[in-house]
Design goal:
By secondary structure, the chain is of the alpha+beta class. The protein has a single domain, classed as Hypothetical upf0131 protein ytfp. The chain is built from 4 helices and 7 strands. Helix 2 crosses helix 4 and helix 3 packs across helix 4. It starts with 5 loop residues before the first strand and ends with a helix.
């Protein structure tokens, strides 16, 4: 927090579609967690009968994302918005984690970490194991394949490499011809 303001760490669609006003944004690195398709989606990118996969922060490695500084007077509204957006099935644990901004500042930012004890947590899946879920998933937010493609396009545009996601997309494109 800075002067009562709160930082939010984004690692997926919040990076390019935050949906809230902020005072400042910066590339940021989170150590100890990585971005991965580690959450079964039965709402946005799948159904209970045919789940897809969505991103979560999982233990290990590091994650390059974006941090957004939210004015102190708007934090409760933004927190409520983020909670409604991310916590549909309680698969994430909202928490404050230490991040390093591009300019070297170190601070704590609000982030959503995948809960390993939740039934929708996938555990570690290889790209080959992710493939069927990515191909079958289609929910309120569209297809899981579109989600992966869109995520990669935005990460590439922001200069954020993510090899495992690229591998899943390559396998999916090969699979559908």
């Amino acid at each position: 927090m800075t002067d009562g303001d709160t930082w939010v760490f984004a690692y997926g669609s919040l990076m390019w579609r935050p949906g809230f006003d902020y005072l400042e944004e910066s590339p940021a690195r989170l150590y100890g967690y990585h971005r991965g398709l580690c959450v079964y989606s039965n709402v946005y990118r799948g159904t209970p009968e045919k789940p897809g996969l969505v991103l979560g922060l999982d233990r290990g490695g590091s994650c390059l994302g974006r941090a957004f500084r939210v004015a102190a007077g708007h934090w409760q509204t933004v927190r409520d918005y983020l909670y409604a957006r991310e916590m549909i099935n309680d698969v994430y644990r909202p928490t404050f984690l230490k991040v390093r901004l591009e300019d070297g500042r170190r601070l704590e930012a609000y982030a959503f970490v995948a809960r390993r004890d939740h039934v929708q947590y996938t555990g570690h899946l290889s790209p080959e194991q992710m493939l069927p879920w990515v191909l079958q998933g289609h929910g309120k937010g569209g297809s899981c394949l579109d989600y992966v493609e869109n995520t990669i396009a935005h990460l590439d545009e922001m200069g954020i490499p993510d090899g495992p996601l690229h591998k899943v997309l390559t396998l999916a494109k090969e699979s559908i011809g």
